[in-house]
Specification:
Elements: E1 6-10, H1 17-28, E2 32-34, H2 36-48, H3 56-65, E3 68-73, E4 76-81, E5 84-85, H4 93-102, H5 106-120, E6 125-129, H6 132-136, E7 142-147, H7 150-163, H8 170-186, E8 199-202, H9 208-219
Parallel strand pairs: 1-6, 1-7, 2-6, 7-8
Antiparallel strand pairs: 3-4, 4-5
Helix pairs in contact: 1-9, 2-4, 3-5, 4-8, 7-8
The protein binds 2'-deoxycytidine-5'-monophosphate (DC).
Length: 220
């Protein structure tokens, strides 16, 4: 296997990017960065500081100024600010509600993309998001774009939330996911779409382990 392979995994919400990315990174002995946590952390901080998720200028300023840190822990990354781990807040319903709005803002994306590129730094890594193969790591050795039907993705996200004892209904999850997909794929800056050289993998009938095997076969 190649040493130092850079793998970009993109796709819509609930498709399993982080489950697959984490398993793949573990089996390759690489770090894994789920870039969604950075947009989520910034959304949480904005709301906490009373910055409106509709105020593009204030959000850009916050993204440039806030000391959002990525701390490697067991091959994964956690977002911290001034030593405070933000992980417990990142799946809060209020973050789910606003994160797509915050991640539409060009100034926010510039700041976070710069940080993501620094983390990759030319070493072997698995990075997941919406624009990794198109914008963040356009020279990645391997680009994967995961797909699944909206129903399957909503089911996966619903099961995940129920397992974490989050009180939600399937209908609520499906509706929220559709709203985010619309915003993420229609935004002007870095919309969700496969890179021209990405391998598109339909995961509807595949377990995360089976997807990882397919990706590893592509690496070989
Ligand atoms: O993958 P996720 O559900 O944690 O992502 C949360 C939001 O962040 C998603 O609605 C779009 C945004 N995002 C993005 O715009 N670009 C990325 N590379 C990762 C996430």
């Amino acid at each position: 296997m190649l040493k130092g392979t850079v793998v970009a995994i993109d796709g819509p919400s609930g498709v399993g990017k982080s489950t697959v990315g984490r398993l793949l990174a573990k089996s390759l002995g690489y770090p894994f960065l789920d870039t969604g946590i950075m947009y989520r952390a910034l959304t949480w901080l904005a709301l906490e500081k009373g910055v409106s998720p509709e105020d593009e200028e204030a959000l850009s300023r916050l993204a440039q100024e806030v000391p959002l840190e990525l701390r490697p822990t067991d091959g994964d990354y956690h977002t911290t600010v001034d030593d405070r781990n933000l992980t417990p807040f990142l799946r809060h319903p209020v973050v789910e509600r606003w994160v797509s709005h915050v991640s539409r803002v060009a100034g926010v994306r510039e700041a976070l993309v710069r940080q993501q590129q620094k983390v990759a730094g030319g070493e072997g890594i698995v990075m997941a998001g919406r624009d990794i193969g198109t914008v963040v790591l356009p020279h990645a050795h391997l680009k994967i774009f995961l797909t699944a039907t909206p129903q399957e993705r909503a089911q996966r996200r619903y099961r995940e939330l129920v397992s974490r004892e989050t009180p939600v209904s399937y209908e609520q999850v499906a509706e929220d996911m559709k709203r985010r997909d619309d915003i993420d794929s229609r935004r002007a800056v870095s919309p969700l779409k496969p890179a021209p050289d990405a391998h598109v993998l339909d995961t509807d009938d595949l377990s995360p382990e089976a997807v990882v095997e397919q990706i590893k076969a592509l690496i070989k």
